[in-house]
Specification:
heterodimer, A: mainly alpha, ABC transporter involved in vitamin B12 uptake, BtuC, two-stranded antiparallel sheet, 13 helices, 2 strands, globular, B: alpha/beta, Rossmann fold, 2 domains, 6-stranded mixed β-sheet, 32% helix, 25% strand, binds adenosine-5'-triphosphate, binds magnesium ion
Chain lengths: 343, 509
């Protein structure tokens, strides 16, 4: 099908304007804090885009957040405010480690991520369908539960006997090949892009996707149209679960051999939350999410050089990033709020 | 000497963001104290013109004068400040608020930080209602009120803001004849108080009865303004359509066949848990139009929803072609040959954010014709289908990719009707099938329902428009408080008798 250009231009322009505003506000904050905004931004963009290495870092940072953004995006497009991606990532990563250590190949790892993601997201789905529990409440609580359960597994069940600071790593035979030597960019990035494309296809080109979108817009019209909104809710959660599960799996399978979940899970923490921002900036559209995911990846990748070259402390980098994210996310949030209020 | 018109719009142009030229330079002028009718086919631009006058939309070009002074409205509040208020085609009340709070909502001095002087507001409203003899309950959440009453609240809400010019966009579409009469009395009273009223309707009879002058639009252009006394319905129809219109409904006599739908001792609850349908029993036969007349809110909605699988049946049975379908989901019913034109087009019949093409397959999207391998939808086939619906029913759309919300009210309705009959049903529920539809299309839809009947299909018609029920039905039931007051043949009763029955009074003859 021809891509509907008209429908895309307005959100695209809005998101671009927001990016510019975000960068400007960030500049003002930098200036007030006594740094040179120009220097800082040059360092950031240079670090993220100025070299092959930077580019590779950008794309590898984009990989997990594109996937977690898809979780939120699928939810938003189908009438759910699903913020359970965060907890799902942990289990995707853990399950991928366990299965690849039993059967050392890539498919088992991906399968583990998918399986864990679906299983964990089935919980808020069932709660909503059977008991009418609001998904915002359930997914927030489940994120906390996931954190402590995962922490327990990481510390007690799959520690690395040789390095107590880490879990077992995914065996080399089950890792994604690195695309560019010396960087962390692996073919896992392709998985995230393919997942986004498949999501687009499912939502806009299949009967299931049609039913999911109709339910998302208008539950009464869905019922009238012969659609079972409960079925739609369950599918939306499961598809979302797959994406965040994959985010965890590709993370532990993608990065170079010594990589594994660290003791406090700091290295896989936060992807689910970042994904919300990525999705909003991408207007909850899978294709938009690819681009906004890369943009966010760029911010992450550039942060280090901003710190090194412009002397901006990492905290400041985070503030600037936060401002950009919030500004960019505002149009998306407004859209969503309008919808939620109307409900 | 010519007196200055209270409203003067000059050369109004409106181009919507998607490029649709809704108004192409329209002049429109209204005299103080008159009731001015605004006529035109679906999509002619009536709502657009009035939204501009009431500050909801900004014109692309043209000027607006109020009492000879040029104005520029940035928002509806600006228009209100100039004494202009509008009651919309689709209501804008907050469902869970009661009448009083809906009316004072958003008024200056009732903001977040100022204390709401509810007592004073109530007093003022009561006075207004007494003057007009136009009562509504103020303390009931509006979602629990019948549409006719909701509309009164909308009107009071506008009047409460002290408007001089009241714009009513198709106010009678949702009303029964008696309610229309009552509304007209209020309008006459308002006129005698010196208010100016702009009245949009597709019903020529109403326009002839209530208006002083009439302006006709066609495809975004002004055709002319005439004095009502000097014109005829025929001439108005010709102005609207651009050619002589011969409107007639032909309904040859026909013997009804076997029962297609059987309803047995059906009990259904309403949203508040009250019994809304109380033990109804009837059948709709092949080759028959079975009509249900009644004041809205007497159980029609619940009855239809129960039959069409959208609402729980408490007790009793629904049988379609001999098969018990009680409690079965809509999808199964559609596969068994049911189609349903729902009364609520915005919230049920359409997904207004989605395109015309996407809406054209709602409820038949699983059919083989649209299905490719792997559960893919064949959008090429869907578009062909949508294009055909639009062509056959002359639905005027910017494009089939345009969202349904960019269609005019009547065109939305036509799209739904077109889609439902495209299901080639054995049994069709037509609930308010011509609500908001223009004269020509109304006749088309009515003739189509008769055609279905002639092809031996069964039609269940529910309508607040008594003429429609009388004209189309082979048999008709009058519903009152969830029960049938009687089942009659239209030719065997007078309108007066039906009027009484609609009030719950049984025929003694
Ligand atoms: N939001 C919108 N975006 C694009 N086009 C629109 C929009 N709203 C209305 N239109 C188009 O403008 C034209 C005039 O619409 P309008 O609603 O004013 O018609 P109308 O005379 O009120 O018709 P009806 O009798 O069916 O209510 C139509 O062609 C319609 O498709
Ligand atoms: Mg209109």
């Amino acid at each position: 099908m021809r891509v509907d250009i008209k429908g895309f231009t307005k959100p695209l322009v809005e998101s671009l304007v927001a990016i510019v505003i975000g960068i400007l506000v960030g500049a003002i904050i930098l200036a007030f804090s006594g740094y040179s905004p120009a220097e800082a931004y040059i360092a950031l963009f240079n670090g993220a885009l100025g070299s092959k290495y930077g580019l590779a870092m950008t794309l590898s940072s984009a990989t997990p957040i594109i996937l977690t953004a898809l979780t939120f995006g699928i939810g938003a497009r189908t009438g759910l405010f699903n913020i359970g991606g965060e907890g799902t990532v942990y289990f995707g990563a853990i399950m991928a480690i366990i299965l690849t250590n039993l059967w050392g190949n890539v498919l088992m790892g991906l399968f583990g991520g998918i399986l864990a993601g679906m299983a964990w997201m089935a919980i808020p789905a069932i709660l909503k369908v059977l008991r009418g529990v609001n998904e915002v409440v359930s997914t927030i609580m489940l994120n906390w539960m996931a954190y402590f359960i995962a922490l327990y597994i990481v510390l007690q069940k799959i520690p690395n006997p040789e390095d107590p600071n880490k879990t077992l790593a995914v065996p080399v035979s089950a890792r994604f090949p690195i695309i560019m030597k010396g960087t962390e960019l692996s073919w896992a990035f392709a998985i995230s892009v393919i997942a986004a494309l498949i999501t687009y296809y499912i939502l806009w080109h299949t009967e299931l996707g049609y039913e999911l979108r109709v339910s998302g817009y208008n539950e009464r019209a869905a019922r009238y149209g012969g659609i079972n909104p409960k079925k739609a809710i369950i599918w939306s959660f499961l598809l979302g679960g797959i994406m965040s599960g994959l985010a965890g799996a590709t993370e532990v399978m993608g990065r170079p051999p010594s990589y594994a979940i660290s003791q406090g899970m700091a290295n896989i923490y936060g992807y689910g939350f970042d994904g919300i921002g990525v999705s909003l900036v991408g207007r909850n559209h899978p294709l938009g999410i690819i681009f906004s995911g890369i943009f966010f990846g760029m911010l992450r990748a550039g942060a280090t050089s901003m710190q090194i070259e412009a002397g901006v402390p990492l905290e400041m980098v985070k503030v600037v990033q936060g401002v950009i994210v919030v500004t960019i996310a505002i149009p998306g949030l407004l859209d969503l709020l309008k919808k939620v209020v109307r409900r | 000497m010519e007196e200055v018109p209270i409203i003067e719009m000059k050369g109004i142009v409106k181009v919507y963001p998607d490029g649709t030229k809704a108004l192409k330079g329209v002049d429109f002028s209204v005299k103080k104290g008159e009731i001015h009718g605004l006529l035109g086919e679906n999509g002619a631009g009536k709502t657009t013109l009035m939204k501009i006058l009431s500050g909801m939309l900004h014109p692309t070009g043209g000027k607006i004068f109020v009492n000879g002074k040029e104005v520029r409205f940035k928002s509806p509040a600006d228009a209100l400040a100039n004494g202009i208020g509008m009651v919309h085609q689709h209501f804008t009340l907050v469902d869970v608020f009661d009448g009083l709070h809906n009316i004072i909502l958003g008024m200056e001095g009732h903001g977040l930080f100022s204390k709401i002087d509810v007592e004073k507001a109530k007093e003022k409203l009561q006075k207004l209602m007494d003057e007009l003899n136009f009562q509504v309950p103020l303390d009931v959440p509006v979602e629990k009120l019948p549409v006719g009453v909701q509309q009164r609240i909308e009107i009071l809400k506008t009047l409460y803001r002290d408007v001089d010019v009241l714009i009513l966009d198709e106010p009678t579409a949702v009303l029964t004849p008696i309610e229309v009469k009552e509304l007209f009395e209020v309008l006459r009273k308002l006129k005698s108080q010196g208010k100016t009223i702009i009245f949009i309707s597709h019903k020529l009879r109403e326009v002839m009865e209530i208006t002083d002058r009439v302006t006709v639009l066609r495809k975004g252009e002004l055709i002319g303004t005439v004095n009502t006394r000097e014109t005829t319905p025929k001439e108005l129809a010709k102005m609207m359509v651009g050619r002589e219109v011969v409107l007639k409904i032909e309904k040859p006599p026909k013997e009804a066949g076997k029962p297609v739908l059987e309803v047995k001792d059906l009990w259904v609850k309403g949203d508040r848990g009250e019994d809304a349908v109380k033990g109804l029993t009837f059948e709709v036969r092949a080759g028959e139009i079975f009509g249900i007349a009644g004041v809205e809110g007497n159980g029609q909605t619940e009855l239809i929803e129960a039959i069409s699988g959208l609402r729980k049946v408490e007790k009793g049975k629904v049988i379609l072609n001999g098969k018990d379908i009680t409690g079965r989901p809509p999808r199964e019913l559609y596969d068994l040959g049911m189609a349903h034109i729902p009364e609520d087009r915005i919230h049920m019949g359409l997904v207004i954010e989605m395109s015309v093409a996407e809406n054209s397959i709602l409820g038949l999207h699983w059919r083989k014709a649209f299905r490719g391998p792997l559960g893919l939808i064949r959008w090429d086939k869907v578009k062909e289908h949508a294009a055909k619906l639009v062509r056959d029913f002359e639905v005027s759309v910017p494009s089939i990719e345009a969202p349904a919300k960019s269609l005019s009210g009547g065109n939305q309705q036509k799209l739904i009707v077109a889609r439902e009959v495209s299901k080639e049903p054995e049994f069709i529920i037509a609930s308010q099938p011509t609500r908001g539809v223009d004269v020509a299309s109304t006749e088309y839809i009515r003739n189509y329902l008769i055609k279905l009947r002639n092809e031996n299909k069964a039609v269940l018609l529910v309508s607040a428009d008594l003429d429609e029920v009388l004209q189309l039905s082979d048999r008709m039931a009058i519903i009152y408080e969830g029960k049938f007051v009687g089942i009659v043949k239209p030719e065997e009763v007078t309108e007066e008798q039906i009027g009484l029955m609609m009030g719950g009074i049984k025929n003694e003859s």
